[in-house]
Amino acid sequence: MARILLTLCFLSCNVFLRSFATSDDFLQCLSQTIPSELVYQQSSSSFMSVLQSSVQNPKYLTNTTVRPLCIVTASGIPHVQAAVRCGRAHGVRLRVRSGGHDYEGLSYRSVQPEVFAVLDLSRVRAVDVRPFEATAWVDAGATLGELYYAIGTASPRLAFPGGACPTVGVSGYLSGGGIGLMMRRFGIGADNVIDARIVNAGGELIDSVASMDQDLFWAIRGGGGESFGVVVAWRLRLSMVEETVTVVNLQRTLDEGAAAIVAKWETLILQPYVPDLTIRVVVQDNHAFFQTLFLGRCSRLLRTMRAYFPELGMTPADCREMTWLRAMAFIGLNGDANAPPEALLNRTNNLGTYVKNKSDYVRRAIGRAGWEGIFREHLSRYGPGLMIMEPHGGAVPNFATPYPHRQGVLYNIQYVVFWGGEADGTAAAAASGWLGGIYGYMEQFVTSNPREAFANYRDLEIGANVVGGDGVTTYESGRVWGEKYFMGNFRRLAAVKGRVDPGDYFRNEQSIPPLRQGF
């Protein structure tokens, strides 16, 4: 027995020593190429402030969070290449972070204990708008707000079909597909990517993925972040819009017929003749909030609403006409009509409350009776819980990108629950119970076989990767969650991964597993 214990102790010490040596070698490797002031080790007094600089959920900043060996705040492509090469050479994986909005925090934490580093791209965030081409190059670390500001100040007629939250990182948004407020007219964000630059698993820069590797170009436009390499810049196709657009925020309570109005909204989505109109709906407690963006003036919006959606009761007094840039500030900053466009440049996060999200897709209208049940059984019983619904509809174009939720999808649902106190306290248990209850209740109304989910609303509860005996993520474990995000595109994504990163260097708990030839 003593010999066995001695042997176990010897093996444990050796494992620790190898890990320690690997970490030192990795840091030494970084120091040869990257300035020391850009690398924050755990011993640094600034480590925690840099780590939490773009963390959006304090749930992943507890004492039990597995933290990185260091944070590399790259300021250019050579630093990204050096981090990849050093990581590969010394067995340290990278977690890549741009905006930090990953709902499971996988861009800066690991679920299982492991030695890893965070590659933070927030310093790599230039935006080069080319108005006469209606294109823009945007670095991976820029936020949507920074992109919108650069586009809107370059030309009042240009826009990009992005999301409502300005602090979301551009790269994470595009890597997961990116649904947004103008997708019924212009497609999702990833549909409008026309080229990209990527650092591959060998640390080499592919300067034009579109011209050098069509399969990889297809995969990175919505196939999930941190699977195929580090995208360092995206070339975007910009959209032409009216110089004046209209925004409207309206709230209706259950007593005012909210359930019936939401049911009528479901039929509006079926209309392919109104792609300039997007009405995003948030339901919470006993009310429904209708957030409208119309690519035109109020007078034309009101004619459209009278024809298709008179139940909402929109009037001229409800309209606010403004430029597209100011509209994105209005929407992204909680309906503040006085918010200056410069406010979109604020990258400050909010760590005041804990949050958990899940997602669904709806292909058949739920109807008035269904919505009355949702309000009665769940929403009105728990104030902090809400549902955000993004309309798709028949007008969402079918582009050749991995985002599969196209034909026949009415809308996406995001379930959100907030709580204060402790990450795992009584309030957390109540929030989790409500979220699980409504998610279970909604099963009768949403897609099935698979129950579709949105990759940008990452959710480890629907499945996580398992690493096989060869040290590579297994394809079968990835299918559990991957076919919910990507449906029939998952196998093709895995085949691309198997070609460009067969050793599975770029991975996390929900990265695409490599499907190698012969399987």
UniProtKB/TrEMBL annotation:
InterPro entries: BBE, FAD-bd_PCMH, FAD-bd_PCMH-like_sf, FAD-bd_PCMH_sub1, FAD-bd_PCMH_sub2, Oxid_FAD_bind_N. Pfam families: BBE, FAD_binding_4. Gene3D superfamilies: 3.30.465.10, 3.40.462.20, Uridine Diphospho-n-acetylenolpyruvylglucosamine Reductase, domain 2 (3.30.43.10). PROSITE patterns: FAD_PCMH (PS51387). It comes from the Eukaryota. Residues 64-241 form the FAD-binding PCMH-type domain. One of its GO terms (molecular function) is FAD binding. Its cofactor is FAD. Keywords: FAD, Flavoprotein, Glycoprotein, Signal. Residues 1-21 form the signal peptide. The keyword Signal applies. PANTHER family: OS08G0158400 PROTEIN (PTHR32448). Belongs to the oxygen-dependent FAD-linked oxidoreductase family. This is FAD-binding PCMH-type domain-containing protein. It comes from Setaria viridis (Green bristlegrass).
